Amino acid sequence: MSGGSEMTEDYRARVRAWLAGNAPGPVAGLPPAEQLSEAKRFQAALYAAGFAGIAWPEEAGGQGLGTAEQQVFAEEAAAYELPTYPFIVNMGMCGPTLVDLGTPEQKRRHLPKLLSGEEIWCQLFSEPGAGSDVASLQARAVRDEDGWVVNGQKVWTTNAQWADFGALLARTDPDVPKHAGLTMFIVDMHAPGVTVRPLKDMSGKAPFNEVYLDDVRIPADAVIGEVGRGWQAAITMLGHERVSIGSARPSRGSALGFEAVLGLARRQGVTDVPAHRERLAGLYAHERALELFNARMRQEIQAGHPPGARGSVAKLAGALQLRRAIEAAGELAGAGAIAWEPGDRHGDDLALGINSAPASSIAGGTNEVQRSIIGERILGLPKEPQVDRDVPFRELKVGTQRTEDAR
Ligand SMILES: Cc1cc2nc3c(=O)[nH]c(=O)nc-3n(C[C@H](O)[C@H](O)[C@H](O)COP(=O)(O)OP(=O)(O)OC[C@H]3O[C@@H](n4cnc5c(N)ncnc54)[C@H](O)[C@@H]3O)c2cc1C
């Protein structure tokens, strides 16, 4: 979006000048360790320049500015391939949840480092037997005199390979119904008993991991929110996650943003073919509608109106837009989507985009789950029957492990 008040245009000029002087070149070709150190260096520079946590409250280490400034920054940053991937969980999920629910000491200890990239965080919710129905999870935290001892396995944990801390959802009371017996904790990912194993996806990269927790000790003051109210904390984090995933703009590096697909059509010389024009127009219209929907939602959040289930609309619409883009790009590229000359950056980027994008229909809650949330909470349709809702967790048959193992 361009245009705006004098204030945001001044801000835009400041952001533009800063990015022009400080944005690093693409890091994708660097060895992994160098990619990470370059990303950390850039995040620290963002923080020092006052561009990390733009709309976070000042007392949380943010800049206390508005969604207009955040939007301006996102628009200007979209012209670059910024190495912010290691911090997506910090900025979109764990950070905002600590802002909402953290104790003063947790906020003081973690938020500045989480914003400056000194700490990397991950989200330890999903398990082999608990994804959509995450309240069925079996990781068990048992209280002793010094704190808690955790045992269990998590899976699909994005960025755990780099993480210093995780927001862990674990069962603290198996004698009450499944949603009532959970607690969220801060877990030190370098603590004894934490093992992280990478999982490769079909793009050939390993963006997520399995995490094993064996007798991991967690101090008593590491509870996020309240003991037994982990489900409410999880809802808070998932709400932030859906808004964050749904409102992410395609960056210049994304082969599935409208501009990139238009570039592909231009290189193929087919921008005047009616079928392609129609597809491109549809792609543009949906991308723009989604941008405006998200801009409005961010303004409402800033004005104190939480988006609630509308975060699911953004999340679902973002995933559907990527599918639309895969179809359009696939039609345009034809065989070029699966075979290209070595060193052809466009071919590499497109294949990576096509292989990575379907995950967005699963990560942060599947499309089917978002549709159920929208149906029940926005459209007022009847709730799905949940026969296990009032049954003590101990009496349920859940998951891939024998239930006794988890207790
Ligand atoms: C790229 C990526 C990153 C991820 N990162 C993280 C992370 O950092 N931390 C983390 O904790 N998790 C993470 N996840 C896990 C993610 O949250 C789960 O994969 C997701 O919630 C789905 O759970 P599941 O894979 O167990 O599938 P299941 O829940 O087993 O679902 C299987 C199928 O059944 C459908 N289904 C299930 N229940 C219903 C229902 N009630 N109504 C209709 N259909 C239903 C689903 O839509 C899906 O099609 C990530 C996943 C991906 C793909």
Short description:
The chain has 407 residues and is α+β, with helices and mostly antiparallel strands. The chain contains eleven helices and eight strands.
Q: What key phrases describe this protein's structure?
A:
407 residues, alpha+beta, Butyryl-CoA Dehydrogenase, subunit A, domain 2, Butyryl-CoA Dehydrogenase, subunit A, domain 3, 3 domains, 4-stranded antiparallel beta sheet, globular, binds flavin-adenine dinucleotide
3D architecture notes:
This protein is of the alpha+beta class and 407 residues long. It folds into 3 domains: 6-83, no CATH class; 86-108 and 117-233 and 386-407, Butyryl-CoA Dehydrogenase, subunit A, domain 2, CATH 2.40.110.10; 247-365, Butyryl-CoA Dehydrogenase, subunit A, domain 3, CATH 1.20.140. The model is unreliable at 401-407 (pLDDT under 50). α7 packs parallel to α9 and α9 (310-333) runs antiparallel to α11. 43% of the residues lie in helices and 12% in strands. The longest helix has 29 residues, at 274-302. The protein is built from 11 helices and 8 strands. Flavin-adenine dinucleotide binds at residues 122-123, 125-126, 131-132, 156-158, 208, 359, 362-363, 365-366, 368-369, 372.
